[in-house]
Specification:
homotrimer; about 350 residues; mainly beta; Porin; 16-stranded antiparallel beta barrel; 3 helices; 18 strands
């Protein structure tokens, strides 16, 4: 076990949090919160050189709510909810089996200044809505958003002069007329200060409540999703942009999590400005627009976050973030938090 | 991850256990028991020097029932139930965020010869009654007793010529008319052979069943608790004493775990006698007196434990303990166990 | 913590699986499957030399479904479901307390070419039926089959000129007229190319639903089991054979998992043929015959597996297996899978 690595991240903060709410019904709470900037976790991983340029590597990672000691599961409700896979890599690229980062998530955290922050990143808050309703006032979208896909096969291509590809399929592993596999494909181009990724997701569907959980999977509802993310590093500032379009067919009526004839559009614009060697200012604005054609209702949810990050050491930084969320027909909510993030 | 430490303790014993019981209804069982002397656990921790005397340290610890392979959760039902926190320490003392040892627990295991033994320490058995009814015949007290408090902020002062202080608050993290934060404050004086700690706990309250679990917290019921513990090391023997007083207001009627107009008094007297370099005899007597003013009933529960501990090596010891428990209106129960305790 | 070891195994495959099924109701699914050849797990273990030839060692191991990130529990539903124990070893042999490999499981995986494969080994599939019905068409036998027994005391003798013994008792740890301890005894003789083990298991019984789970144990139903396994290594091939007989008394009627007046016979014949230094062909045929005297029904389940294993490196191998299962009154099912197995 020469190569075994035990590692992880603890992110803990203290803040006052408020969501969009009905008038006179503020949801404000003061909280010790784990993972406000990056979800805390512990991991075990290793690599073995098999010769001939071939490598075998495994990864097991579990989310932790450090504030309470709970484990945070993936949508499928599993302990090793951040990653659990084995991969073979070589000149051909990399093939992974198991639960592996979904390319939509990867693109999502790459092209916004708040990364994978489930509390502050407008993108993550709007992606989260795809699986569970973070903003409880918007009906949750049916397509599961898990940061990693279970029961999946993933192929990552080598880098061809800045161009690379990823393909992922999550098997349905069950029988049923409406049960389908889920697919993701993504292409990335990166050259000098510029990078961009185009991602396509086609979510599978289950035909009965409970089926999905039984499979340990969480990718319900027959939705199609396009996502484009890009960044440009000017040196004095790095610019970010993202656009996502989601469409659900009428044919999904009756399926678990189905929202027939719903359309969503998500965009985000962000910037990170290094103010010293150790400090950066982060700003991001994102909008989610949900259109329910059947109900004839359009709802907008907008998140704006402004943050300051200061590096204390090689493995530890501290942050302070102000965030505002507003939504059609609701009062806006303001959150303010400070925290410390420690890699181990 | 240079500083990462994987560590823990396995305590396994074999014994015949009996609680206080109705006449002719002995509860005696023969058991392979985990953690009779010290609850078994596994932990992951690390420290990073941030410079200028400042250190960041994190701790993640999970209880284990080694006899069955179960994880033992804290009252809030969480996997990392022994500890999950990050702390900054320096000349100012230490500030910790997350789930961190409650000072009542710390004082509780410090001033009795059986430490944190949930099977043999009269103090721990009576503290346990505060959260869950170890002696099933006494109604459980409402104030949660968790060895660590979740969602908490803890401050530990430096040592001022033998004097030190600890303050802890566990945030309610929810809204509701009766929901309150929980607080603990403790002061310790230690000089030469003498040490004493005075602790005050004010438990919060929840106004509806389920609220507490939903918050991942377990500190219900608006009780006030005073605790005084002291020890004196004569060299040929170390003497221990503890006194605890708990009072619940009438105002808590209707709250989760509320016992309006209940009063509890707990005391313990103990001694540990080193008989050789490697062996010690331990003895402890404790009484819990519960007075239910409304029902007009007073119940006493008394535990006496006599033990022998022998050090096999730097990391391993073996023990044998006899324990007697008796309670108002019940037959007394006798337990006898031997075990091995191994640090790793 | 000098001796602490973090280790484990990740086995991941891709296959098309089908069980015995009613006509026209194939159960075929395409799956990313964890642990098809060996159940994936992570472990923490350590040894301490206590002097005088005495050693203390502890083991904590948790099964993992790497395909979904789930933990796989033992029958008792526990996180540390592969092993959780402490042992003292020396010239007298070894005594272990806690959850420790049951000798029936040890003999079961030793004398068949597919080892502990829950997907391909006919023996493991038929043993599994003892606890849970892997072939859902055969009623599950009542005697729990857990690879390790919880709440147990195990003694392993030293090797006396090729002869060695194991005794194990799992304590009932509860009260109730029908509740009994479970026992296993095994004797092994190994000399040169020959090895054989005779095992006897007497399963305890619980008298009410839920009792067993409450105890964290899973050894229900008053069954008696005899098992004989043997192997002979010819050099060009290693031969394997196993025979198991299980009988349940009429007296168990009404008990949890009871199947009064049921008899089962299981046999297996296998061979492994090393074709190169790094490759081996494996073949195994096994039959389970269940006779329900009360119902007057006899059911046979037969599994045949043919596999190829290729060693990629010191810690990693790949495999391909074809397996056929057939059962009285059902259509047979065929499975085909390839996988990679990585020790860390």
């Amino acid at each position: 076990q020469s190569s075994l690595k035990v590692y992880g991240l603890v992110d803990m903060g203290l803040g006052s949090f408020e969501g969009a709410h009905e008038k006179g019904e503020s949801t404000r709470t003061t909280e010790v919160r784990s993972g406000a900037m990056t979800t805390s976790f512990i991991g075990f991983a290793g690599v073995e050189d098999l010769g001939g340029g071939l490598k075998a590597e495994f990864t097991l990672e579990s989310f932790i709510a450090v504030d309470t000691g709970q484990t945070l599961n993936n949508n499928a409700g599993n302990f090793w909810g951040r990653a659990s896979n084995i991969a073979l890599s070589g000149g051909f690229g990399k093939v992974a089996l198991g639960q592996y980062d979904n390319p939509l998530f990867t693109s999502g955290y790459t092209y916004n200044p708040f990364g994978s922050s489930m509390s502050f990143s407008p993108t993550m808050r709007h992606f989260n809505y795809l699986g569970t309703s973070l903003q409880t006032n918007i009906p949750s979208a049916g397509v599961g958003f898990d940061t990693g896909w279970v029961n999946s096969i993933t192929y990552e291509s080598p880098n061809f002069s800045g161009l690379s590809f990823v393909g992922q399929v999550a098997l349905k592993e069950g029988k049923g007329a409406q049960l389908k596999n889920s697919y993701t494909a993504a292409a990335t181009y990166a050259a000098g200060p510029f990078a961009a990724t185009l991602t396509y997701v086609k979510g599978g569907i289950s035909n009965a409540a409970g089926t999905v959980i039984a499979n340990g999977g969480a990718y319900t509802s027959d939705e199609k999703l396009w996502n484009l993310g890009a960044s440009y590093d000017l040196g004095v500032a790095k610019l970010f942009g993202q656009y996502t379009s989601i469409k659900e067919d009428a044919s999904t009526a009756g399926a678990v999590g189905a929202r027939p004839n719903n359309k969503d559009k998500i965009y985000q614009l962000g910037v990170s400005v290094p103010v010293t060697d150790k400090a950066a200012v982060l700003a991001s604005f994102g909008q989610l627009k949900n259109k329910d054609t059947d109900a004839g209702v359009t709802t907008k949810n907008e998140v704006f976050s402004l943050g300051y990050d200061y590096t204390l050491s090689k493995r530890t930084d501290v942050y302070g973030v102000f965030s505002n969320v507003r939504q059609t027909a609701l009062q806006s909510g303001q959150s303010l938090a400070v925290g410390i993030r420690h890699n181990f």
